[in-house]
Structures are given as C-alpha cells and as structure tokens.
Write a structure and sequence with these properties.
mainly alpha
Length: about 160
C-alpha cells in the first residue's frame, strides 16, 4: 500500500472509530447513569428504613407512656388495624400527655404530614409500578411487523 493509499484508508477509518466511540459513550453513559441510580435508590431505601425504625421507636415510646399494659402496646405495635388505635380514651391520654401550648396540635399536624408524604410516595410508586408493567408488556409483545422490541431499540434510537 502506497503512502497516499494509507492516507485514504486512514480517512475512511476515522469516522468508523468516532462512531464506535460515540456508541461506546452512549452505552457507558447509560451504565453510569444506571449505576448512579442504583446507588441513589439503595441510599433512599436505607434512609427510609432508618426513618421507619426511628418512627416506630418514637411511637412505641409514646404508646408505652399512655397504654395500660404491655399486651395492649404489643397488640397496637403488631397490628396497625387494631381497634385500640381508634380509642377515644387513648386520644384523650395523648392530649393530656401533650398538654403544653399547642403541643398536641403540632403533634397531630406532624403525624398527618408524615402520613401525607408516605401516601404520596406510595401513589407515585404504584403509578411507576404500573408504568414498568406496561413497559415490560410492550417489550414482551410482538410488534405489528412480528419483531419483538428490544431494550436497545427502546432506549437507544441509534440502535
């Protein structure tokens, strides 16, 4: 191969190498984003687990100070649908315990805020779950042309 021919081949190889690097970069970015998402998601799950432990300990301590017995406490902690949670007597005891200026109202407001936040997260996660289910249904179904959709086609328009 002459010197000028090698120049022509080299010119032809440049776009191929650039294209390969761009596709590599797309794949790398996707994997990097996925790894980042996994770390953040794991961190979020760990944070929520810690918050659940702290909240549960707080509720147990509060109940211990206003319930009559360990049995009653255990029943309430183990059964969130227990009728004991609806007891007007229990609510009155909590009000007496939190008798300072606005303490009970602030406590109730905080509990409702936590409840609303968790309910909102739950609804969004259920919507996400439905979206993922629909996505998998699309991925696993045949397209009108008879070809099955693949993840690379779905997430990378260049594929």
């Amino acid at each position: 191969m002459s010197g000028i021919e090698i120049v022509g081949v080299t010119l032809a190889v440049f776009p191929l190498v650039i294209s390969l690097l761009e596709h590599y970069q797309d794949g790398y970015d996707t994997l990097r984003n996925l790894a980042h998402f996994r770390r953040e998601f794991t961190h979020l799950v760990n944070e929520l687990n810690r918050e659940q432990i702290i909240f549960r300990q707080h509720v147990e301590g509060t109940l211990r100070s206003i319930t009559e017995s360990e049995f009653e406490l255990k029943d309430m902690m183990d059964n969130v649908r227990s009728e004991r949670w609806k007891s007007p007597d229990l609510a009155l005891k909590l009000q007496r315990k939190l008798c300072g200026d606005g303490e009970y109202e602030n406590y109730r407001s905080s509990m409702w805020a936590i409840h609303d936040s968790l309910s909102g997260m739950s609804k969004r996660l259920k919507a996400f779950e439905i979206s993922v289910s629909c996505l998998w249904a699309v991925l696993n179904s045949s397209s009108p042309t008879g070809t099955v959709l693949s993840l690379p086609r779905l997430f990378n328009a260049k594929a």
